[in-house]
Every structure is written in C-alpha cells, then in structure tokens.
Amino acid sequence: MKMILSLPIDLLILFAILAPIVYLLGVKMRTRKIVDIWAVVGFLVSAIALYLLYNEVAAEGIITHYWAGQQLRGIAILQIDMLSIFMAAIFLLIGLLTAIYSTKYMERDTGHAEYYTLLLLMVAGMIGVAFAGDFFTFFLFWEIMCITSYVLVAFRKEKWESIEAGFKYLIISSAGSATVLFAMSILYGMAGTLNFAYLSSTISNTPTPWSILALAMIVLGLGVKAAIVPFHTWLPDAHPAAPSSISAMLSGVVIKTGVYGLIRIMILIFAPAEYQWQLLLAIFAIITMTVGNVMALLQNDIKRLLAFSSIGHIGYIIFGLSIASVYGLTGGIFHIMNHAIGKALLFLCAGAFLFAVESRNLDDLAGIGKKMKITGLTFIIGSLALAGIPPLNAFQSEFMIILAGIQQGVTSGIWYGLSAIMVLNILFSVGYYLRIIQIIMLREPTDLAKKAKEAPAPMLFSMIILAILCIVIGIYPGPFADFANQAAEAALNLDNYVRAIVG
Amino acid sequence: MSGFTGMDLILAIMIPAIIAPICFIAGKKIGRVGNGIMATIALAISTLLLLGSWNTILSQGHVIENYGVWIGLFKIEAIFLQDHLSFAISVLIAGISTLAAIYSISYMSHEHNHEIYFASMLLFVSGMIGVVLSANLILFYVFWEMMLIPSYFLIAYWGSGKPRIVGMKYFLFTHAGAAALIFGILTTFAVTGTFNLLELPDLLTGVAPGILKGIMILMFIGFAVKLAIFPVHTWLPDAHAEAPTPISVLLSGVMIKTGAYAIVRITLTLFPSQIMTVAYSLAILAIITVFWGGIMAFVQTDLKRMLAYSSISQVGYILFGIMCLNVIGLSGGLFNIINHGIAKGLLFMCAGAVIYATGVRDMKQLGGLASKMPITAVATLCGGLSIAGTPPFAGFASEWMIFAGGFAAGYTILAFLAVGAAIITAAYYLRMVKRVFFGECPSNLSNTKEAPISMLIPIAILTFFTVAYGIFAFVPLEIVYPAAEAVMKILVGA
Q1: Hey, is the C-beta of B191 within 8 angstroms of any chain A C-beta?
Q2: Which residue in A384, A390, A406 is closest to B190 by CB distance?
Q3: What is the arithmetic mean of pLDDT over B42-50?
Q4: Between A and B, how many CB-CB pairs are < 8 A?
Q5: Which of B276, B357, B368, B461 has minimal CB crowding within 10 Å?
Q6: Domain residue ranges in chain A
Q7: CA–CA separation, A69 vs B10, rounded Å?
Q8: Which domain holds residue B490?
Q9: Residues of B with Cβ-Cβ distance to A400 under 8 angstroms
Q10: Average per-residue pLDDT in chain B?
Q11: What is the pLDDT of residues A182-197, one digit of tens each?
Q12: Residues of A within an 8 Å Cβ radius of B
C-alpha cells in the first residue's frame, strides 16, 4: 500500500481540529489533562508518519504529491526531498518536546484547547512550508504558521506586553508576507506558473530587472520572518512576550522557516552563479550576527537576551547559505538544527526559572541555579553549546561554516575577512553566555531565588533530552552532519528537483 | 605488541572522562574521601596506561591508534599518536594530576560541592591528555577547548579573591587565543584538505609561503596565550594565584605546558622553514618574558601570586630553549617542561600546605615555620632551588642545556641575559623560603601543625623526583632527547 505523502501534516491538522472536542470531553470527565496528552500523542503519531516518509525519500530521492487531487500546472503540489525531511524532523522534535513541557508549564493558564490547537496547527504550517513544491502551497502554509504564531505570542492576553508585542509582530510580519505575495505575482507574470521547478527552469539562468526585483522582495519578505537585520525589530519584543514554550518554538524553529524559504528559493530559482547574490547576502549576514551579539550583551531580561542571541545565530546560518558551497550550506543547515536544539533548551530553562519565581530579570534570577540544580546544569550545557565551545553541538556546525568561508577565501580574499568577522562574533558572544552562566549559577541566590523549587518532571524531561542531544551531537556529529549534508546536497541538486516535475 | 590493551591511548583519555559523571552522580553518597579516591584511581590508571606504551615507543618509535572516521563529511579520523615527545608530556600530566587528586582530598575539606569539583578536575585532565595525544587538528582543538570549560568552573567556583572576574578573564583570554588557533586550523584544511597531523607535513610543502606564515602566526598566537608568553600573559597571575591550590598545581604545573607541547608538535614540525625566519624574534620575546615574570615575582608578597609570576618566567626559558632550534636547546626546553612541572607543582602544593595550616598567604605575615612544618620547609627549599637551577637539582640540568643551546645557536647576548635572570630566580625563591620558614614566628601562628599526611605524600613524591631527576638526569633525557632529535630532523630537512 502506498502511503499518503502529506500524512505528517494531515495528522497534525486532524489532531488540532479534534483538540477542542477532546478538551470538552475532558471537562465532562473531570480530567482536564487529557487535551495535553492528546497533543503529545499528535506529535508522536506525526513523527512516526514522518519517519515512514523519510524511508521513502531516502529510497527515491525526491517524491511529489498533488495534494489537491489533480494536476493543475504544477500548482498545489508537495515536493519532498531530504532538505524538507530534515526541516520537518527538527520542527517535530522541538514541537513534541515543547508539548511535553507545556503539560506542566501551562498549568496556571486557561484556554488549553486553543493553545494546543494553535501549537499543532503552527507545526503543521511549518512542515507544510518545508514540503511545498510551489508558491501557492508555500504561501498557504506560511500564513497558517504566521497567523497561529501571532495569536500564540499574544496568548496571555491579560498582559499588555503580550498584546503590544503580538500586534507589532502582526504588523511587521504581515508586511513581510505581503512583500512575498507581491514577489510571487511578479514571478507569475514572468513565467506564468508558481511551481518552483518550472520557475527554476525559466528564470534561474536569465536575470532580468523584474526577476532581480522579485529576488529582492523575497529576501526582504522572508528576511522579516528570519529576522535578518534590519528587518528584525519585531523579534526581541515578540519572543520574550510569548509564553516560554512558545518562545522556544519561535526562536528555535519558526524563524528557521524563513531561512528554509531563503535556502530553497534562492538556490533553486535565483541560481547564485547567475544572480551573484552571495556577497551581498554575506554582508547582510555579518551585520545580522554583529547586531544580534552586541545587543544581547546589553540586555538585562533573560528572554530578551536569548532573543537577540537568536538574531546572532541567524546571521551565522545566513552566512553559511551565502557561501552557497556544499560545505557552507551543510554548515548552515546543520547549524539550523544545533541552534534549534540549543535555543529551545535555553528558552525552556528560562521558562522553568520564570515558572519558579515569576521573573525574567537577571538581577532577580541571580543564583537560582543553586536552587534548581538540574535546570541549572542543562542551562549551562545549552549556553556553552551556543557559545560554540567544543565538544558541544554548535561548535561542529560553526566550524563547518567558517571552514567553508575560508575555502571561499582561497579564491577571493574578501571571504577571509568575512570569516574572521564571524570568528570574532563567536568569540564576542562567549562574553554574554558566560555572563548569564555566572549570574544564574555562581552568584549568591537572591531572596526571590532562594524560594525557587526544582522544575516539575515533564519540564525537566524536555530539557534533559535537549541537553543530551547537545552533548551527543557534539561528541559524535557524524550521522547528524551526514543528514545535514544530504539535505544540503538535495538543496543544491537542482537537476533532480526540476526533473521530477518538468521531466 | 602495543602496551597493555592495544587501546591504551584512547582509554587513558576516556577513563577520567567516563569516571567524571560517575563521581558527580555518586558524589553525595560516597562523600569527599570516596570521591577523591575514585578520581585518584582513575588518574592512576591513566598514568599506567600511558607508561605502558613505552616499550612500543622504544622498539617502533611511536604508537598510532586509529579508530576510523569520526566526522565522515570532512574525513576527520579519530587518530591518536604517542611518541617520545607526547610520552614525556602526557605522563607528566597524568602523574601530576594523580598527585593533585590525592592532595585535594584533604585540601578541599573546608570546601563545598566536592562531587562537582572532582568531576570537573577529571574532565580537565582528560582534555589535557587528549590534547597531547591527538594526531588530528580538529580533535586537538576539541580537547584544547575541553580543558577550558572545567578549569573555568574550577577557578570561578572554588577560587579565592574575586573568582568570577578572574575566571572570566581566564576564559576570554584563552578563548580568544583559541579563536586565532581555529582560524589557523581551518585555513590549513582549506589549503590542504586534511586535518591529519601525520599527513600534513608533506602536503604543506606545496603551499605558498605567505599563507603558511599567516597560518603559523595565527596558531602561534593561540599557543602563546596558553603558554602565557609576554604580552598575552596577563590572565596567568590572576588565574593561577586565585584558583584552589590543587588546580593551581595543574594549571601552572602542566596545563600551560600544553602550549609548549603544541609549539613543538605543530608549529615546529608543520612550518619548519617559516619558524626559522622568526626564531630569533621569538627568542627575544622569550627573554622579555623571563625578565618580566622574574621581576614581577620579586615584588610580590602573596605566596601563590609569586609562584604564578615565576611560572611566566619559566615558560620564557622553555620557549627560549625551543627557539634555539638545535638539539641541545630543544631537549633542554622539553626537559625543563618536565622539571618545571614537577617543581612548580611541588611549590604550589607546599604553598597550599602553608595556607592550609595557617590560613595566611601573605609572606609578610608568615615566618619561622621551619620547626613547625619541617617536611614542607625542606620540600619548598628543594623545589625553589630546582627552579633556580641549582645543582644537584633537576632544574640545573635543564637550564644548563637551555643556556648551552642558546650559545650554540649564536644567541650570545640573549643567552647571557638568560643566565643573569637565573640569579633573580634564586633571589626570590631564597627570600621566600627565608620569609616563610625562618625568622620570627608570629605569635598567632605558634600553634601551627604540619599538613595532613595525604597532602604530604604527593609533596614527598615530587620532592623525590626533583632530586632524582637532578642526579639521574639521563633518565628523562632518554625520553626527551630522541624527541628533540626527531623534531630537529624535520627542521634540518627544510
């Protein structure tokens, strides 16, 4: 029997739609927890479906699926290769751990039915973006993801901060979406199709003013989501204001969909050899990482600090993309995974601190690691990992990116300089990671921190899994790097991607 | 036939790393003493495993353990190499660490969280041994940084004075050096396509000299920070003085020597013709380091801070010996790595014993302890005289070789200066011994007792070696001389 290729998405949507009903049943049966478990099961089932899909992709290389049932000039198509699977796997992993974490973390909030529906839908949207084979599907799922995330940022609607951040996020991000839509319409006007493969075969080799305009608008539109400086201003407000589990999703994976879109579209439709966007994008990347890291050093709110650090890491990933070689892209994609794991871990830890003492201010949190030993330990691991210290995971991908930059430098000297700036950035970022470690772990506990109790088991579970992943990927990166490498090869192998549709 | 198990090298690295989490988890149950004994046993096993490869080295020249592909994407292999050079340094590291673990059991009795302390210490040592045995630059870098994290926590958590700031300074300095190092390593890969230290010498000969010089400078910056060469030495006096004493032993005794090891192993063997063009300038830098460390040590009144500055002075000697680029200077430098490791470890342990017994670390407030702590007093005298280069102690032989190497290399003025600096060294050590152990005993210290036996055992063992290596200097020379000859063969070939 042939499996339905959209199954991971379908299952998530199904579970999302049924979540309110399950919640109502739970209320009737006086066991409110049932909807939490329902969501966790949803992610698990979807993960199994994704694993089956992975086997198919590993066997066939690329698979396509017309989800609307019939072929409409390559519209409404899912086209799944290793890059899509790689991204979807990260989305589901972080989604699952977030859901487990939320079962305890969201205990003090109401509206669990809405929360889990939105969370499941958001992940479904992200996987849809990664699977999309044409702009129509891409944009559809993109908007599912965006709209759910707006609501989730403003989920604690009794607080003014959440409303304000959510509104700001809504305005800026919608402007980005509209820009992408505009670019889509230009591309449609030029090629008469929205299918990625057809667009690739008509546009990628012939830069015209219109296609360059479309490229610029796509970089801008997706750049807003990916928080490339100067389109990043929504991020430091939105990520801290959301509940911490959602911050972990937003900073860990949602911004990566923007990066995924950039990787897929820029490599496929605007071939780097013709459009020569590498250096310009690299300069954007350098500015992004520098602004992110410098701003992070100045923060006194732990979640805001982590949010700025995400901008810095997006800079590293975009730098890897801008090199557009196999190593560069592998490093960038690998770093997507490592940053997702590390940053989700840190936000979950920050959430655990918040859960214990109701404060995000670093002065209040001083010394809390001495009271919450396990959370503190995982927090140290996450911080050191993201600081790029071997033998933890982010080091492995960062060295690949820098290596690719230096290799580029052998042919064109400016890349030596750009890579050196990235090394300096990593060095600089150690400063603030060390600062938060010192504040959280080494200072004498404040009065507030003294009252803190260790986080409950479901929250610890998610954090420990992520911390173990940080160490395992760092010590034995082989299989993970190979997976990222397959994804990068798939992204760079235009022929396969185009031939699957154009024939 | 290689050693005991055929996997000696990787086990020597991994056993401390594997025992570390066990120490941490079981820590609360087995207590401080249990923890300390476990750490000691783990490190002792490492030492024995490393010693076990000696026969193979004698017969075949080296032991290579290749565990195949580690990161397939870059064809990075997990490969370890033990030859005369790494044998000398790795055994020194493992041996001194074992003694430091024994010493910690009593010394850390007033402190808290022993389980984390011993776990960090084991990871720290595992990183150091790994650095010395790695035959792959990425693996080397990973271990290089693996030393850094636990040692940072050891300083920042159990240190004295302002440990947070000192720890931060230590971390940022070493990490900045490491950033230069990784840039050099990655450029090496970009021009050759391999990280393998055994293949690199051949592949690098085809690369443009300008690029090679750039790589060499980048890497040297990384090593120089670790070795604390003037002007990137400023982290050392703070870190080594404020760390808990057993950790000072490790930092000053062995960790900084990984920088010297790396200079010999990587800078000299990979870039032989480039190093020759800068050797004289580096020798000048070494002499400046010798004097800077010596003069600063002379004006200190804090016991541990003085020892820390003395370390800077001594790494200057080591670098000078290496930069002579002849067999006698190089083997003198390597010999001094061993001698200084033993003697400085000994002196820090003695200083720790004095601090443990009296609670005072300012030399002005100490005095007349010779009758109260006779063993510590004798040991301190032996250690101080050894570092000052007095016969028949070990330091005499190595410093004499360094001076001879300097004259042989034609650095006449520098060598004279180096000899002169030895007088400063003798002056501050004798003054320290006089101030601490002779003269009038302050009334508040009249009840001082000798340090506990578990602290005296490592002190006694190290004292034995400072004397034994002075009289039977041919024993360690049998190890370091072939190492120097092997390196020189590459240098002469270039």
Answers
A1: yes
A2: A406
A3: 90
A4: 78
A5: B276
A6: 7-502
A7: 57
A8: 277-494
A9: 73-74
A10: 88
A11: 999 999 999 888 889 8
A12: 327, 330, 384, 389-391, 395-396, 399-400, 402-403, 406-407, 409-410, 419-420, 423-424, 426-427, 430-431, 434, 438, 442-443, 476-478, 481-482, 485
Q: Which two tokens stand for residue B385?
A: 């005289």
Show the tokens assigned to B63.
């032991």
Give a yes or no: residue B19 inside a domain. no
Q: Are B223 and B85 in contact (CB under 8 A)?
A: no
Region A88-115 average pLDDT: 91
Q: What's the average model confidence in pLDDT over A460-480? A: 92
Q: In chain B, how many domains are there? A: 1
Chain A CB contacts of B187 under 8 Å are 406, 409
Which of B182, B191, B217, B242 is most worth mutating to test chain A (most A CB atoms within 10 A of its CB)? Answer: B182
Confidence of residue A82 (pLDDT cuts 50, 70, 90): very high
Query: What residue has token string 């050797």?
Result: B279
Query: What is the C-alpha R_g of chain A?
Result: 22
Q: Report ipTM for this prediction.
A: 0.87
Q: What is the pLDDT, as a whole number, of residue B392?
A: 84
Give the pLDDT mean for A234-261: 92
Tokens representing B354 are 């004095």
Query: Token pair of A8, please?
Result: 């991971």
B158 lies within 8 A of chain A by CB = no
Give the nearest chain A residue to B75 (CA atoms): A478
The predicted structure's pLDDT at residue B20: 85
For the CA atoms of A50, A56, A60, A64, the dihedral, rounded to the nearest 10 degrees, stands at -60
Contacts of residue B301, defined as CB under 8 A and 6 or more positions apart, other chains included, come to: B362, B363, B364
Pairwise CB contact (< 8 Å): B73 & A400: yes
Report whether the peptide linkage leading into residue B272 is cis, meaning its omega lies within 30 degrees of zero. Answer: no
Q: What is the pLDDT of residues B374-429, one digit of tens each?
A: 888 899 999 999 998 888 888 888 888 999 999 998 888 999 999 888 889 999 99
Looking at chain B, which residue has its C-alpha nearest residue A389? B145
Residue in chain B lying closest to A413 (CA): B211
